[in-house]
Amino acid sequence: MSDEIKTSQQLWTGNFYNEGIGSHDGLFDKLREECGVFGVFGHPESASLSYYGLHALQHRGQESAGICVANGESFSYYRNMGLVKEVFNNDNLTTLVGPSAIGHVRYSTSGESKLANAQPLVFKYRGGDLAIATNGNLHNAGEVKKELESQGSIFQTTSDTEVIAHLIARSKHDDIVLAVKEALLKVEGAYAFLFQTKDKLIAARDPHGLRPFVMGRLGNAYLFASETCAFDAVGGTYYRDVEPGELLVLDMSTNVLVEDRFSPIKQRAICAMEYIYFARPDSDIDEINIHSARKRMGRQLALESFVDADVVTGVPDSSISAAIGFAEQTGIPYELGLIKNRYTGRTFIQPSQELREQGVKMKLSAVRSIVAGKRVVMIDDSIVRGTTSLRIVNLLREAGATEVHVRISSPPFKNPCFYGIDTPDRKELIAAQKSIEEIRQAINADSLHFLSHDGLLNAIGRPNGEFNRGHCTACFDNRYPTKITDEAEVGCGCD
């Protein structure tokens, strides 16, 4: 077997090119979204609502999707590998009947990409049926799992979410709410959990509020989601954010929301990358609109690093808002200098090594008539390894750009994330190894500037009454809001 064939086969494990690729995607050097959760309580069409809600959250995970429905007496659920529209159809959705549902879209930051790890995970224990869906990462899951295994637990998946199920099953409490509280106090990390029994739905958010989690209403029904854009998709309205350390309980016997806690709020630290890159522009996080925040990042970037140029363009899609803000601040025209091909996802065709080396051309095209003979300011949200930035700069140069000035709407990404974002080891992060001038040379740009740390926080616009304005910026400044275990340091939670 040739080296070329070996390489191509190592890039994915399933039938589709983007199925099971994990962190081995050789085409695109971008951070990977975590996961997305969606929940419904008190609506007869809970499965259909979950389908549309998950579709709106598809950007948070494309490997697998699943929905579990409870009717007061039993569960019905379906999950599979692939996109939401590929996993679900009228035949399997009509089998999911009940007023309560939890759903999930997954990108594996911890655990393998395979059906056994697709969520919601469903278990049977002494209290009956239990389903769990989560967005985030438990950075002490490894040590807790070892302890449970030493006590006789047998794990069926490689997902750290299963650890919570074992802790609940082993709890001395028969009451599910007390058992969930006890389990959550034994794990550390970033998470938004949805727990479901045959007659209850429980929502919980980590004590630091690292991962976004919101509650909405649709008539008398309650909705839960990773982002507010999911409420718009089902005709619901935003009600409020789930607070850090909060435990919300809904029971079919009362249909009353019980607001409880399993932990006090600790140092608030919502992930800054949600504002920079992950969340959809039409979502609000902590009542701050993502598109507006990104525009302010672009404006601040222009104030910090003006350059005389002819056009401003953004790398689709997450950088468009920042590019508009940069253009508005400088007066340099914003143009669609880069176009994204939205149909490069799941394919049975395995690209050749030559195409893989030029892989960015499968996803992005430069508009020659816009950039030829022009000095271009290219706005992007981050630089991870630097490989994609080099490809895009060269793409613009090949299209005739006379100068390419790169502006990044975040500080240099220097440290791995242990809270649910799939990041490379520190040694693979270009900003951890090179100076800004060395990065500029590596990506073949005429100039390069990153948004300052203070500029980022000012642009997001959250109040200044908390440490770091209530954000986690560890990927930029190495200040992690929780203690990171040695095991997490080694594995990074990104298996």
Automatic annotation (TrEMBL):
Catalyzes the formation of phosphoribosylamine from phosphoribosylpyrophosphate (PRPP) and glutamine. [4Fe-4S] cluster binds at C271, C417, C472, C475. Residues 35-253 form the Glutamine amidotransferase type-2 domain. Binds 1 Mg(2+) ion per subunit. Binds 1 [4Fe-4S] cluster per subunit. Mg(2+) binds at S318, D380, D381. Its cofactor is Mg(2+); [4Fe-4S] cluster. It comes from the Bacteria. The keyword rRNA-binding does not apply. In the C-terminal section; belongs to the purine/pyrimidine phosphoribosyltransferase family. This is Amidophosphoribosyltransferase. Its EC number is 2.4.2.14. Gene3D superfamilies: 3.40.50.2020, Glutamine Phosphoribosylpyrophosphate, subunit 1, domain 1. One of its GO terms (biological process) is 'de novo' IMP biosynthetic process. It catalyses: 5-phospho-beta-D-ribosylamine + L-glutamate + diphosphate = 5-phospho-alpha-D-ribose 1-diphosphate + L-glutamine + H2O. Keywords: 4Fe-4S, Glutamine amidotransferase, Glycosyltransferase, Iron, Iron-sulfur, Magnesium, Metal-binding, Purine biosynthesis, Transferase. The active site is at C35. Pfam families: GATase_6 (PF13522), Pribosyltran (PF00156). InterPro entries: GATase_2_dom (IPR017932), Ntn_hydrolases_N (IPR029055), PRTase-like (IPR029057), PRTase_dom (IPR000836), PurF (IPR005854), PurF_N (IPR035584). Pathway: Purine metabolism; IMP biosynthesis via de novo pathway; N(1)-(5-phospho-D-ribosyl)glycinamide from 5-phospho-alpha-D-ribose 1-diphosphate: step 1/2. One of its GO terms (molecular function) is amidophosphoribosyltransferase activity.
